[in-house]
Amino acid sequence: MRTYLSFLIFAFFACNHATQSAKKPLLMSIDTSKYAFIKFDTSENYLFGKYAKPAYLSQSELNEVENLLDSAIHDYNRMEKKVYEKNLKDTSLFHAKASDVYDDRITDLSDYKKQLIAVINSSGEKLVWVNCFNNHFSAPYWQKTVVFVNDGGKWFFNIKINLTHRKAYELMINGSA
């Protein structure tokens, strides 16, 4: 009985510790010249709905976000390459020269700064909105406020990631003026 009681006490504290550590923000070394973690503002529920709650990301979750983002961009680029090559062949349909055909592929994710907003939705799933924009974009507020721009093409895009289901969705590349 004593062993059983000791096990229960250990399990309680272990579970409580895991719950507490899940609520803490990232405490490891993050390149703040590339990443900004922005707390979800519950009054602006257009990203995740009105029942979402702010959340934090662990290092392993951040790694998973990067992996899913990389995979989504790879898929996007594969599709975009087909569109680009088709447009090159069909320039006469557009009354354009081959040099006028725009290549909208995202070549290197290290060329982008990233803003991340993490939440737990009403179903208990952890979601992350990743807003990406070119390193050369120099808004002094980018680490505190969400950056929204009109146009900009492949240099400004965002995507949602569901960490619970390990799925990226709603990739939105800005339009080109």
Sheet-strand content, in percent, reads 15-25%
Q: What does the largest sheet look like? A: 6 strands, mixed
Number of strand segments: 6
The end-to-end distance, rounded to whole angstroms, is 73 Å
Summed up:
With 177 residues, the protein is an alpha+beta fold.
Question: Would you write up a description of this structure?
Answer:
With 177 residues, this protein is an alpha+beta fold. It has one domain (33-173). The protein has helices at residues 2-23, 59-89, 91-94; strands spanning 35-37, 53-54, 112-120, 126-134, 156-162, 167-173. Strands 1, 2, 3, 4, 5 and 6 form a six-stranded mixed beta sheet that branches. It is elongated, with a radius of gyration of 21 Å. It starts with a helix and ends with a strand. The model is unreliable at 1-27 (pLDDT under 50).
Keywords:
single chain, 177 residues, 6-stranded mixed beta sheet, 6 strands
Question: How is the secondary structure organized here?
Answer:
Layout (H helix, E strand, L loop, with lengths): L1 H22 L11 E3 L15 E2 L4 H31 L1 H4 L17 E9 L5 E9 L21 E7 L4 E7 L4
